[in-house]
Design a protein that fits this description.
78% of the residues lie in helices and 0% in strands. It is mainly α and 72 residues long. The longest helix is centred in the C-terminal third of the chain and has 29 residues. The N and C termini lie close together (9 Å).
Length: 72
């Protein structure tokens, strides 16, 4: 499991996610479609938050596996 290519791909995934997702999150939250007239979250916001959480979990898992492969 400590293939240098695997570690490089996992680390590339982590870096990509850390660069791409935070700005996208900020844009989605500011988007007028994110809240209705009363200020309640819309499906647009809910779906995107689910995507952000899944991406965050996958990023964390990739980081853990990459570190484990580097350490041992």
């Amino acid at each position: 499991m400590d293939s240098p290519l695997l570690v490089a791909l996992l680390l590339a995934n982590v870096v990509f996610n850390l660069i791409v997702w935070p700005p996208l999150y900020r844009r989605v939250v500011k988007d007028p479609r994110a809240r209705d007239a009363v200020g309640k979250a819309t499906r647009f916001l809910t779906v995107h938050i689910v995507l952000f959480v899944v991406a965050g979990v996958l990023t964390l898992a990739s980081a853990i596996v990459a570190i484990a492969a580097l350490v041992g």
